[in-house]
Specification:
Layout: H1 8-11, H2 27-32, E1 36-40, E2 46-52, E3 57-62, H3 71-86, H4 90-93, E4 94-99, H5 104-109, H6 130-142, E5 146-152, E6 167-170, H7 182-198, E7 206-208, H8 218-224, E8 229-234, H9 244-263, E9 284-294, E10 303-314, E11 319-330, E12 336-342, E13 349-350, H10 355-367, E14 370-371
Parallel strand pairs: 3-4, 3-5, 5-8, 6-7, 9-12, 9-13
Antiparallel strand pairs: 1-2, 2-4, 6-8, 9-10, 10-11, 12-14
Helix pairs in contact: 3-9, 7-9
The structure holds zinc ion.
């Protein structure tokens, strides 16, 4: 089976979509793979896991360690569905252990942190939270040969020339000197295999995360224990706020990474090429407006204005809503937006500290829009 766009509908898990993914959303999928409970969250929600395959190579994957980073969970289920439907032979080589939602309280509340407001990706040493202990116990018992640490990144991330960072990757450091240890090098090579497979589809939209060492991050800890660990970050593209486009590319990335591990194809890569993947920068906003007149600027000279959406869970509709907030204004040469607008022809002077006026700005910007 060829992994091409036309075939995606055949294996995509259509019952999950959008940004709000929690334990309830994935209950059928957990059942499909005969999941079991491996522990409970602070607020006593079950943490599910399932195992597929009986192969010698052991791969541990977890997602939604940050509760509101749901895109990679959708992508993970798509990728598993692909193998389950079309390439079951991988499970002769591979034993896959999956924790689809490590932070079910954060997923339910749509927060990055867990119920105690702790960032689980800074708790790898302290192990102060039940969710962190669950992951560490599974790691110790399963003894994986490889780990995938699945996350989602904000819309601010870009690669070169203001291109959206639809995907970014990190081979975490094992130490402060960022030495190229065996496990780091293996992770780099697998990332290069993913990059090679995706570069014809999205050549300008793949970034590399900063590799500053932080032992409190789970990836850095596991890498320092000599387990090749890859951080996947599912990013943003254009006006796709449901993140179904980056879901697709993330699912391809996971699929290619698994194929690379099974075939050991990554061994052919020169890890030095990893550093050629452009490092992420944070130069994008959701709405970028040029030449807008605002009361806050002296002499009402036109300025540039960058707006970021704040994401909020609507408890009634169970959907994520997006509220504009000012990021910065002035002469913003190093910023661009997923939506670009030039207000040169608009005479009105806006008061950007008034919520209604900010909403009006976004409505006008959408009419005048020039989508990045
Ligand atoms: Zn994250």
């Amino acid at each position: 089976m060829n992994i091409v766009v036309e075939n995606y509908a055949d294996y995509k898990e259509k019952e999950i979509f959008g940004r709000y993914i929690n334990n309830d959303s994935i209950s059928n999928l957990n059942s499909k793979y005969s999941s079991e409970v491996c522990g409970y969250s602070v607020n006593n929600l079950p943490i599910h896991f399932f195992k597929i395959g009986s192969g010698k190579t052991k791969l541990l994957i977890w997602s939604q360690m940050h509760g509101n980073e749901s895109t990679s969970t959708k992508a993970l289920f798509d990728s598993i569905s692909f193998f389950y439907k079309h390439e079951q032979a991988v499970f002769d080589d591979l034993t896959l252990l999956v924790i689809p939602i490590l932070n079910p309280d954060g997923a339910f509340k749509y927060t990055r942190e867990n119920y105690n407001n702790v960032d689980l990706n800074r708790d790898a040493v302290d192990l102060s939270q039940p969710e962190s202990i669950v992951l560490k116990k599974i790691y110790d018992k399963f003894k994986p040969d490889f780990c995938f640490n699945l996350h989602g990144q904000r819309s601010i991330y870009s690669t070169i020339n203001f291109n959206s960072s639809i995907l970014s990757f990190l081979s975490p450091s094992s130490d402060f000197d960022r030495n190229e240890t065996d496990s780091r090098v293996k992770s780099m090579k697998i990332i290069l295999d993913i990059f090679d497979n995706l570069k014809t589809l999205i050549p300008n939209n793949i970034g590399r995360y900063n590799d500053e060492f932080n032992i409190n991050c789970v990836g850095d800890t596991f890498q320092s224990l000599n387990t090749p660990t890859i951080l996947f970050e599912s990013g943003h593209y254009s006006q796709d706020y449901s993140r179904e486009i980056s879901r697709y590319y993330t699912s391809l990335a996971i699929t290619y990474a698994i194929k690379s591990i099974c075939s050991k194809g990554f061994n052919l890569q020169n890890h030095k090429n990893y550093y050629k993947i452009p490092e992420n920068s944070t130069s994008l906003c959701d709405v970028f407006i040029k030449n807008i007149k605002i009361k806050q600027s002296s002499l009402s000279q036109p300025v540039d204005l960058s707006i970021l959406y704040k994401e909020k869970l609507n408890l009634v509709s169970k959907e994520i809503e997006f509220f504009p907030e000012i990021s910065e204004f002035g002469n913003l040469d190093k910023v661009s937006g997923h939506l670009l607008s030039d207000f040169i022809s608009i005479d009105k002077v806006f008061n950007i500290s008034v919520e209604n006026e900010l909403n009006e700005i976004v409505i006008i910007a959408k009419k005048l829009r020039n989508i990045h």
